[in-house]
Amino acid sequence: MELPIIYHPDYIAPLPAGHRFPMPKFKQLYELLLAEGVAQTGQFYTPKRPSSELIELVHTPEYVEAYCEGTLEPKAQRRIGLPWSPELVNRTCVAVGGTILTAQMALSQGLACNTAGGTHHAFPSYGSGFCIFNDLAIACRVLQKLGLVQKVLIVDLDVHQGDGTAFIFQGDESVFTFSMHCEVNFPGTKQVSDLDVPLTVGMEDDAYLQTLAHYLPDLLADVQPDLVLYDAGVDPHIGDRLGKLALSDTGIFRREMQVLSTCVAAGYPVACVIGGGYADDMKSLVWRHSLLHRAANQVYHQYRL
Q1: Torsion sign across C-alpha atoms 291, 240, 114, 218
Q2: What is the distance between the alpha carbons of residues 146 and 42, in angstroms, rounded to a whole number?
Q3: What is the pTM of this model?
Q4: Which of 241, 240, 275 is CA-nearest to residue 256?
């Protein structure tokens, strides 16, 4: 058995030329993993679009219907930051299905990676910051509903605080939210995660990794989750225009190895999503996202999962 990787051709949806959100990166990531031998075609699994009922385990029926039907108020649409289209509705839902499948496969295989996901700014009744439905939260609720997990740890290392996820699970002891993010960055108003670690602007590799090492092992021991959901955003990179931190490519790879080996060595299954990344150089951005899958492949074989 090889590392399970989740991908669907519908992860890419057409957007107007020049739009800030780089939709092509999802297909290019898939192609790069194959071209460089990081993965073989047999490792890829295709998710299904989940029902509205599953999405409504987290989001209000009114919001789900309005978004899917294209009847959101213009202000609510602008808050999302993406132009509405039927193709984007389908892409959004399929990506949620991808994270659900990734989580299910992580439970059976010990480690699995999505090639999309990490829409952590979505709240129950509205979307924000390029995030429409919160795939992390929905995956938690679906697996809990199916009786597959009781306790989940969300490790969010995107450069932006996972505010929607934090809000959704406030006061819920079955999901522990950990967000390590740049202190002066979007969102302007932070929510309260179970553990927030704000980082200073310009933090580089060693300080970042030492900070992570200070928290993660103890968190695993304290929470003892049935599953770790890992949001591996690459926007802490020095070349990211929405980041404000200063990690290198090597630092990103070391981070992925650190997170995955720490969790897997302790016996905790990990489901990974790629999170944010907003560099102007698409080739460099796709490479950075591939570092998650490269590290996961290495850890998967190292621990003989």
Answers
A1: positive
A2: 27
A3: 0.96
A4: 275
Picking from 299, 143, 163, the residue whose alpha carbon sits closest to that of residue 231 is: 163
- Over the stretch 234-290, which tens digit does the pLDDT of each residue have? 999 999 998 999 999 999 999 999 999 999 999 999 999 999 999 889 999 999 999
CA distances from 81 to 78, 121, 247, 257 (A): 5, 12, 26, 32
**Cβ-count burial of 214 within 10 angstroms (0-12 exposed, 13-18 middle, 19+ buried)?**
exposed
Determine contact, residues 143/104, Cβ cutoff 8 Å: yes
Do 138 and 96 meet the contact criterion of CB atoms below 8 Å apart? yes
DSSP 8-state secondary structure symbol assigned to residue 11: G
Q: Please say whether the beta carbons of 88 and 70 come within 8 A.
A: no
Tens digits of residue pLDDT in 170-218: 999 999 999 999 999 999 899 999 999 999 999 999 999 999 999 999 9
DSSP state letter for 51: P
Degrees (nearest 5) of the Cα angle 100, 103, 104? 85
User: What tokens does 135 get?
Assistant: 């795939």
